[in-house]
């Protein structure tokens, strides 16, 4: 597991949880402006997920670490991202770029968090695509849900 330092979002929640994991996936950015990235290639993505809240569940969890990983890893590991229903190969807004994948990871996780009685929130997705390239996605007004 890569150990790295990433920026932390400001908030006033009592608990902040962070989960790190990898997933391997292929993708392509179907636009000639994407250079070599328009051709299918793969990455070992590294994700750091930041979740916060004030209330724990009956197990003493904000949310089980395993749930966070499973939501993303089970869906995307060893897949071609373009084939997932979250993405598209002909609508630029849904190409599986680092930015769009980070936002999609946020949406998948927050949708699950919204079902929990203790109402944790996802504050930040750190998604590294290559050793030299990463994106941070933070929902607008993230610490004010
Ligand atoms: N804003 C974005 N730019 C690029 C994305 C992206 O998702 N968002 N993606 C790519 C490619 O898919 C590629 O996987 C990553 O490109 P890059 O960082 O240039 O990869 P390198 O490892 O070759 O980088 P070097 O630092 O030059 O070795 C391209 N752009
Ligand atoms: Zn790529």
TrEMBL record:
<keyword id="KW-0479">Metal-binding</keyword>
<dbReference type="Pfam" id="PF01242">
    <property type="entry name" value="PTPS"/>
</dbReference>
<comment type="pathway">
    <text>Purine metabolism; 7-cyano-7-deazaguanine biosynthesis.</text>
</comment>
<keyword id="KW-0862">Zinc</keyword>
<protein>
    <recommendedName>
        <fullName>6-carboxy-5,6,7,8-tetrahydropterin synthase</fullName>
        <ecNumber>4.-.-.-</ecNumber>
    </recommendedName>
</protein>
<dbReference type="InterPro" id="IPR007115">
    <property type="entry name" value="6-PTP_synth/QueD"/>
</dbReference>
<keyword id="KW-0671">Queuosine biosynthesis</keyword>
<keyword id="KW-0456">Lyase</keyword>
<dbReference type="InterPro" id="IPR038418">
    <property type="entry name" value="6-PTP_synth/QueD_sf"/>
</dbReference>
<comment type="similarity">
    <text>Belongs to the PTPS family. QueD subfamily.</text>
</comment>
């Amino acid at each position: 597991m890569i150990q790295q330092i990433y920026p932390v979002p400001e908030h006033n929640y009592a608990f902040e949880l962070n989960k790190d994991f990898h997933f391997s996936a292929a993708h392509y950015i179907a636009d000639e402006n994407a250079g070599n990235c328009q051709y299918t290639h793969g990455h070992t993505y590294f994700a750091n997920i930041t979740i916060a809240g004030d209330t724990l569940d009956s197990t003493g969890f904000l949310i089980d670490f395993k749930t966070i990983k499973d939501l993303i890893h089970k869906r995307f590991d060893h897949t071609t991202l373009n084939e997932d229903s979250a993405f598209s190969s002909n609508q630029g807004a849904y190409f599986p770029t680092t930015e769009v994948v980070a936002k999609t990871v946020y949406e998948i996780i927050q949708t699950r968090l919204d079902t929990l009685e203790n109402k944790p929130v996802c504050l930040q997705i750190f998604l590294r695509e290559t050793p030299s390239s990463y994106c941070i996605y933070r929902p607008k007004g993230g610490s004010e849900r």
